[in-house]
């Protein structure tokens, strides 16, 4: 009897959405670093000319009388990175519905800390470089979730477990701010006809959800139309990924082979396993399933490729002198290395003193500073915004070099502070 039940029981795999997300981000951070280093080595090697030549290769696609002609870097930055922002949008949705941002008081500290960590770096940048390139003010606002979470894993397990959700919530709010800035500030002159087409497509996505259409292919087609409409409208097309991620349903995914590990209560017998499996199979939402499927592709392939394509910066004595003399580079550098931890700590402690929020359980003030320093690792999204904000090649090069140096120093500062806080009894 027991053998028969086991034979008929469906094969399922357990998901732990938050744990899986953090584990994928941590592992992906290594590949992002490898991609960035590979880009730097390539550009500073005897084959440096082939770097720009390769990424400038143009690829055209024609469909129904419309032609899209982009180079490989833009196919990556505007096309494949849409999947990255789709995953970000779904994580924002999950956190708002059933995560650390769903409870007002629990969300209070990371939200306020993130706002401080965006405003202060932007102000520092404007003070230093506002007269030279004011459009770059959003560059030091960004936090790289993968690298920041990866760094926290590197520091060790003796830190309070509550620091990871705090950092994740902070980085997610930071991403929301970056997405809004991209939509409002860094979109070109709007083509209203194409924008209307994008709005109609969004309504079609909402309608498909309303009629409980869960075929992935249908949403892929609608998402592609939305992406193209935004591109033609002059609105940055990666926002199609964010919009679709936010609209992804949180209802249980029927006929799933996955269950939420937190729902598996009783595995003491074959019958209990079958019963709890039937209950738990409805616990994995469409958002969680899509994240589980797509997140490894974005973390292990797309974002490392983005790092390879965009981190290629010439490192030479002349490049260093140019950066040292560039207000843009100094604005980005100071914004990330100084503005991020300063803004995060000041806003967080002010919120705690006002009684609006509490420090994460078991965490100390010095550890909040360490998290603020980790938030200064702005690599992926900061470089992404640099490509949108700056048109002068020298300013772009200086800003990217500043991002790299500031991110490395922010990581080092975070490691020193967090490891030091483990040895301290009080902060």
- Beta content comes to under 5%
Question: Major β-sheet, in short?
Answer: 2 strands, parallel
Tally of separate domains: 1
Q: Given the helix and strand composition, which structural class is it?
A: mainly alpha
Classify the fold: give the CATH topology.
Na+/H+ antiporter like fold
Instruction: Determine and state the CATH class.
Output: Mainly Alpha
CATH homology-level superfamily: Na+/H+ antiporter like domain
Tell me the distance between the termini.
Answer: 60 Å
The parts where pLDDT drops under 50 for at least 5 residues are 1-12
Helix content: 55-70%
Mean pLDDT: 82
The ordered string of helix (H) and strand (E) elements is HEHHEEHHHHHHHEHHHHHHH
Strand order of the largest sheet: 1-4
Shape assignment: globular
How many strand elements?
4
Number of helices: 17
Architecture per CATH nomenclature, i.e. the level-2 architecture: Up-down Bundle
- Using only C-alpha atoms, the radius of gyration works out to 23 Å
What keyword list fits this structure?
disordered N terminus; 427 residues; mainly alpha; Na+/H+ antiporter like fold; two-stranded antiparallel sheet; single chain; 4% strand; 4 strands; globular; 17 helices
Condensed summary:
By secondary structure, the protein is mostly helical.
Task: Explain this structure.
The chain is 70% helix and 4% strand. It is mainly alpha-helical and 427 residues long. The protein has a single domain (9-186, 236-250, 285-422), classed as Na+/H+ antiporter like domain (Na+/H+ antiporter like fold). The strands form two sheets. Strands 1-4 form a two-stranded parallel ribbon. A two-stranded antiparallel sheet has the order 2-3. The radius of gyration is 23 Å and the shape is globular. Residues 1-12 have low confidence and may be disordered.
